[in-house]
Amino acid sequence: MKDKRKVIAIIAFSVVLIASVIGYFLLPETLVVQVAADGSAGNTMPKLPALLIAPALCAIGSFLYVNDITNDTGLWNNRAIIIIVSLIVSAATYIFNL
């Protein structure tokens, strides 16, 4: 079971990292990280810190997911949510800025 978790974590981290590298070349220098209720840009950040949020979140989530100390025998546990959120954050970065 731990081998399957490692594969899932590696694939998720690879997807997020590749998306961030591609985003570095495609996205503008200032990225929208929050959208206001009226659809305007709420908060913005410089490109590099904004693109590093998702890989950092995925790295932490992957580490916790693979090294689960609760002995949860299932493939999907609550630590997998962190990985899923990092994938959503990566996709939202593109949606808000393209």
Task: Identify the overall geometry.
Answer: elongated
Mean pLDDT: 90
What is the helix tally? 3
What is the rounded distance between the termini?
Answer: 39 Å
Order of helices and strands: HEEHH
Strand order of the largest sheet: 1-2
Topology, number of strands = 2
Task: Return the domain count.
Answer: 1
Report the uncertain regions.
Answer: none
Please give the largest β-sheet.
2 strands, antiparallel
In helices, the fraction of residues equals: 55-70%
Which structural class do you get from the secondary structure elements?
alpha+beta
Strand content: 5-15%
| Rounded Rg | 15 Å
Task: Write a structural description.
With 98 residues, this protein is of the alpha+beta class. The protein has one domain. Helix content is 64%, strand content 12%. The protein is built from 3 helices and 2 strands, in the order H-E-E-H-H. It has a two-stranded antiparallel sheet with strand order 1-2. Helix 2 packs antiparallel against helix 3 (80-97).
In short, what is this structure?
The chain is α+β, with helices and mostly antiparallel strands and 98 residues long. The chain contains three helices and two strands; from the N terminus they run αββαα. The chain has helices spanning 2-26, 47-66, 80-97; strands at residues 30-35, 41-46.
Main features:
98 residues, alpha+beta, two-stranded antiparallel ribbon, 2 strands, elongated
